What does this fold into?
Amino acid sequence: MKTDLRVALVGNPNTGKSTLFNTLTGLNQKIGNFPGVTVDKKTGYCQLPDGRNAQIIDLPGTYSLYPKSQDESIVFSILADKANPLRPDLVVVILDATNLKRNLLLYTQVADLKIPVIIALNMMDLAKKSGISIDIDLFSKKLGVPVVPMSARRLDGIDKLKTAISFANSIALQEESIDVETIAPQLIGQITKEFKLDNPYYALQLAHQHETIKFISPAESDRIEALEQEFSFHSQKAQASETIARYNFINDLLYDTVKVPETAQEQTVSNRIDKVLTHKVFGFIIFFGVLLFMFQSIFSWSAYPMELIADAFVWVQSHLHQILPAGPLTGLFVDGVIGGLSGVMVFIPQIAILFAFISILEDTGYMSRVTFMMDKLMRKVGLNGKSVVPLIGGFACAVPSIMSTRTIENWKDRMITIMVTPLVTCSARLPIYTLLIALVVPNRNVWWLFNMQGLALTGMYVFSLISAVICAFVFKLILKGRERGYFIMELPVYRMPRWNNVAYSMYERSKAFVLQAGKVIIAISVILWVLASYGPGDRFKQIEQKYSRPQYLQKLKPDELKRAINSEKLENSYAGVLGHAIEPAIKPLGFDWKIGIALITSFAAREVFVGTMATIYSVEGSAEKMESVQQKMKTATNPETGRPVFSLAVAFSLMMFYAFAMQCASTVAVVYRETKNWKWPAIQFAYMTVLAYAASFLAYHLLK
Amino acid sequence: MTLSELKQGAIGIVKEFTDLEMSVKLMEMGCLPGEVITVARVAPLGDPIAVNVAGYQLSLRKFEASTIILQ
It folds into this structure.
């Protein structure tokens, strides 16, 4: 779309910035990454009243231009770098009218960069309700910028904002807030001169941030460092005096223009809610209840749509098989690519539901309270109050949970959370556990109440949480933190969730998952398909020749014959050859080559295990027929010993393997996407595989 | 007296900070010398705490609160 004007939205977190962005752009938005960093770049288009098209960029919420996280560092880079193609012509600073003081700090910083600015004074409805009165004309006159009072959530003032954007000046007219040069007069003067700058605040920001910003060269950065030495510039002291000066300016401004009653009413309502929600006893009970509900819903609400998606793909696949000529290309496309695609798509319901919950919890302000309650507990094992949500989400699926770790600002805490989240028993492990437990654990009650199979399953879930906590503790000792951990966090007042934002979040996250993690999953599925469908030399030909002999054709029914052929082909395929090849390595765990094939094929996704088992034991019908797989597996005997293959020891050894091993291509892909470095998925894969091997080995030898 | 010693419901006024790095972050969040600060709540496990300052509610760990000296 043609861009006539580029507008950036800047503001504190919890000011309604996303709501405003969604309202201005509608579905006309695009999410990508800022080059080189894992920060979501949200852009969209908005038609102005004069017919021009404005490109709107939603910048991450921040309290100051001095960044505390990777997300926040983007804000300065976009606003200051003159060569950046996204540099805005105009900045709309969104201020929360109920909390102007803290919100104005960021405004004064942005204004001093001398980019044209408009103020969107949001949440006017709430400010009025709390009895806050603002003299908007005087406020606007003192700052020298247009001020648009509005309420984005009620759609009040949106048109006025659009008009203000279209009438905005192309040169910055705002008043100076503070005398920047007095903070470090010589240094600012020298940098301005040497770098030919026209703005003292930009020079000061370069002095503070030259080590981290990417748009200046190393030589330039070194020169700034040398100048800092020369004029003995202390970054933190300078920041402190700047902040104090800015708040002096803000206090003077607010004294003349804003009247706030003693205690804002909204605060007291929030306090009353908090008395219950963060209560010593009820707080935890309610939190537990919320989790239980969320966990149950992810399971139960997603079951039906997941089934629909899977069925739809099966329908498409069988139709394509009928339409397209049989051959290796059709097989690769229909079974490899489309099969892989269906493996991606079935996750969409779970991702959408999990993110709906997360965005509701964040929107209402409850998430901050959970963090507040759990921080002490989680900190002991190297995690953070904010790690609770991904860990619990891991019960459904590690993929969306790892995506949700972005809310954790601290790098080390976030990495540890990403590293241990896949240990939590996800829904893909459930079919494996139920299959194996049903094989070896008697369906009997102990103490009248507890079913032994149920106890074994619960045990696996509890075990996974314990192992995640232990691993987190180990990572805490190994990983070195890049920055000091803070917990200085706003507790926003409780608000109703904005359903539009919830819907956008569901849509966005699902789309990002399909587009980015999907590519890797499809590639791996194709490779696995090839491995399972082709064999070395002319083995496949020989098998077909063998079964075309009369003794087979006469003795076996057509479908029995087909099963026998498929089963023997699998044994002789590359996957089968690989299964035999890794047999020596997995023998100490009690596994034979058939289980080896299942381990290899289920690398892409754990649930493939059941399907592969079904194919190997050549079971009639679909892989979903658990009963029949179970029976076949139960009667399978080891040809050497004559004893059943799936003994208690083997079954538990297998469960231990699946509890720890990183058998999930989607998780590998998403960890790469979130960390932007193959090192992390590699470390994760390695440590989980080692743990899996050790745990299986122990389980097998203890139970044998 | 530091903020971490302030009882729930009690009122204090920020005087100065003992940790420069922390003070930069705290001041950006509106917690400046001269500001009135009250302890609104303590987390169920005793840490962190929630304080009212500059017209909103801020949560911080006890250790972080111990770097804020009150008048």
User: Anything to note?
Assistant: The interface with chain B takes residues 63-64, 66, 68, 98-99, 101-102, 105, 236-237, 239-240, 243-244, 247, 260, 264, 267, 270-271, 274, 278-280, 283-284, 368, 371-373, 375-377, 484, 486-493 of chain A (CB under 8 Å).
